[in-house]
Amino acid sequence: MFEFLDVQTPLGLSVGQTLYVAAIAAVAFVLERIVTRYLRRFGRRAHLAPSVCNNLVLTFRILILVGAAVSVIWVGGLPTEWFVAFSALGGAAIGLASTQTIGNFVAGLYLLAARPFKVGDYVRLGTVEGVVQEITINYTKVLTIGNNVVSVANLQILQRDITNCRYEDGGEMGVYCCTFEMGFDHSVSTEKMAQIFSEVFERHRHKLPRPPSFMLLRSGGFERVYVVYLYVEHPEDIFILRPVIAEEVFKRWDQERRNPKP
What CA–CA distance (Å, rounded) separates 61 from 201? Predict the structure, then answer.
């Protein structure tokens, strides 16, 4: 066990204890500088949003501070009153933080490490669909087709189905594949529907990296449901092309239904 000089400082610590606290503070400061520099370089290499990088830095700063405080208390031989004070402070902090907040924090760290999606990807998070704008420790912000930014708690994301629409076609350029369903009654034959889809897709194929495609998903007593595959280079294009293509298909279907051609 460490033996400290009997000379007391104004804070009630011996000279030896004061030197030990100063040494721990110096080590914590150097470690914080090294970790911060590494995390910022990592953020640039991983193309993380500035807010995400700042949250990571803040998290590790807190961890280093807590580690330094524990080292001072348990190894530095500080008075019992200091231990009681730190324990009370830590207990109050944990008491103020709700279970939901802690869960979001842990889930945010997992999402940053696992990276099921990144900023700029077109995703479906349960019922929320759109382009990822920002990933923070607590929330992920998604721009939807209605031009609204939805903040989804990271804990909720881990409890939902995650669909990343990034499609790798074997080349170097990433392509996004958005799928959506369209339902029609049986007034128009499947052959004519295939022709309608082909006509509409042909008008838009020059704007896209791959021509759109479709598939009959299911057929019931009252309707047939098709799934459309739309390929784009920029996720924001989905907000424009998806409603345009759907409207053109429905218009052609309505024309054919009202004025069938042999």
Answer: 54
CA atoms of 31 and 25, how far apart (whole Å): 10
Can you tell me the distance from the alpha carbon of 109 to that of 115, in angstroms, rounded to the nearest whole number? 10
Burial class (CB in 10 A: 0-12, 13-18, 19+), 236: middle
Please, are residues 235 and 122 in contact by the beta-carbon 8 Å criterion?
Answer: yes
Q: What is the 3-state secondary structure (H, E, C) of 166-200?
A: EEECCCCCEEEEEEEEEEECCCCCHHHHHHHHHHH
- Expressed in angstroms, the distance from the first to the final Cα of the chain is 99
Domains along the sequence of the chain with CATH: 15-96 (no CATH), 114-164 (2.30.30.60), 167-258 (3.30.70.100)
Quote the CA–CA distance of 44 and 56 in Å, as a whole number.
13
Q: How far is CA 163 from CA 67, 124, 130, 166, 178, in A?
A: 38, 5, 11, 9, 10
Q: Tens place of pLDDT for every residue, the chain, 262 residues?
A: 444 444 444 445 566 667 777 787 788 888 888 888 887 787 777 666 666 666 667 677 777 777 777 776 665 555 555 555 555 555 555 554 455 666 777 777 778 778 888 888 999 998 899 999 988 878 899 999 888 999 998 888 988 889 999 886 544 457 899 999 999 999 999 999 999 999 999 999 888 988 999 999 999 889 999 999 999 999 999 999 999 999 999 999 999 988 776 6
* Residues forming beta bridges with residue 124, ordered by sequence position: 129, 163
Q: Are strands 213-219 and 149-153 parallel, antiparallel or unpaired?
A: unpaired
Q: How many residues does the chain have?
A: 262
Residue position matching structure tokens 């390929």: 231
